[in-house]
Structures are given as structure tokens and as C-alpha cells.
UniProtKB/TrEMBL annotation:
It comes from the Bacteria. It comes from Tritonibacter scottomollicae. Residues 1-258 form the CN hydrolase domain. The lineage of its organism: Bacteria, Pseudomonadati, Pseudomonadota, Alphaproteobacteria, Rhodobacterales. GO terms for molecular function: hydrolase activity. This is Carbon-nitrogen hydrolase family protein. Keywords: Hydrolase. PANTHER family: BETA-UREIDOPROPIONASE, NITRILASE C965.09-RELATED.
Amino acid sequence: MKIATAAYPLDWLDSWSQYEDKLSRWVSEAAGNGADLLVFPEYGAMELATLDGADVAGDLEGSIQSVSDKMEAAATLHQKLAAEHKVHILGASAPVHAGFARPVNRAEFYTPTGQRDHQDKQIMTMFERDPWDIAPGGPLKLFDTALGKIGVLICYDSEYPLLGRALAEADVILVPSCTEALAGYWRVRIGAMSRALEQQCVTAMSSVVGSASWSEAVDEGCGMGGIFGPPDTGFPGTGVIAEGTLNQPGWTYADVDCASIAHVRREGVVRNRSHWNEQESRAQHVVKQDLR
């Protein structure tokens, strides 16, 4: 498969047609470059709040309601584009009211055959906890697709090894992110690269980039697209298959062969994935030595 992962700027939108045009351009460009799987970033859908004006877009609670109300229309657009261009799309995530006590951070996944499912974020950042009050959603999922087995760890989730381990069967783990500073970008990138190392798979990170001063939640974005693998047999020695340019909007592309993933898991120089369970017994016995 060819993966396209986005460094995506949030725009002020004066009409729904502007959003349709923007998303259509992005999908058309990636598909035109041969991409099979498109990855948009965490909270990239927050730009939809601008359709209700500055007061709503700049209000934390108001922006949640505004974006949540528009996500079914956004889903219809994504499904249309996925079918038209024959691509799989992980749409930009959004805070949505989904039957939980509080909104969840949800990314929708679309196939070219019209199927649709979603992944909710599992662990909230400090800002999501307070003051935004976004809640953990439903469980982790493993999507069995025509491209291979695909999982999603939304931003902060990628920094937790046990969540990555739960997706150990995945060929590719998608990591949509939204980080406001370079340190945040590198935390998520290090998490994505670590999960690729541990589970001997490919991870694909997307980012929100640029300024959105109209929003308290996503006012600054720092990052770039990146596709990573285990630094082992059949993959680059750095683990970096492809990376974009920091804070420059656009797509980053990489060709990924699931056979290469199976090969490194079977015959890699190291076998982190298959040796994972050896940690448990070793970690239970820590001998404390006083060397003062």
C-alpha cells in the first residue's frame, strides 16, 4: 500500500462548500499521487466550528457542540470521496457526543466500499481533562481491511506501550496528532517510533500545523507527517521510512509492503514483538541494593 499522512492546517471557513472544496482537494491530491491510505490528524475537524462564527469557535464548550453537530455531514463527504477515489481514509478526529457522559475524541475510518467505523481516544491529555472535559471513549479496535490489519492510537495514546501491545496484530498503526509545541510533536513521534519498534510494524503519524488563533483548543499546531518502521531487516536503519518538513502543510508519502512486516517479525535481527512476554516475569523481581 501507499500511505499518505497529512500535515494539515486549520482554516477559517465561511461556508460548507469551502470545506467540501478543501477536503476534496486534499483527497484528490493524495489519490492522484497513488495513495491507498490517507491519514488526517487529531482535532483537524475543529475548523468546522468556524462555520458558526467567532464566538462559537472560540468557546470551548460551544465549539464541541458545533463540531459534533456537523460530523455526520462530514462523514457523508468522506464516504463519497473514499468511494470516488478508491481510497481508505482516516478522517480528522473531532469531539463528539456519542452517548457517553461527556464528548469523546473520535476518528472515523472509511473504506472505498462504503464501510465506516471509528476509533475513540483512550487516554486524555491534561488539557482534555481540564478545562475541556473530553472523556475516554469506546475500546481499541483492529480494522481488518483490504490493505491489511490497521489500528489507530490517537496522539497521546501512542505514548503508552500497553495500548500498542493491544494492537500487536496490526500491520500499520495510525497516529493522528495535534501538538502545539516542538516538544509535544517529539513526544508523539517518539511514541509512534517506539510502538513500531516494539510491535515490529509500521506507524503513520499525521499532524495539525500552523496557527488557528480563533480557537482556544487548537490555537497552534506544530508537526509534520511521518511514516516509521522497526530499524531492522528490510527497513531503514533509522526507522524513518519517510518524513515531511516541520510545519509545512502537505502530504508525506511512503510505500509499505505488509510482506516486509511479516518478514521482519519472523526473521528480524531482534524480535521485540515475540519476546514481549518475557518482560513480565523479569519485571516482577527487582532487587533493591543500597550502595550509599
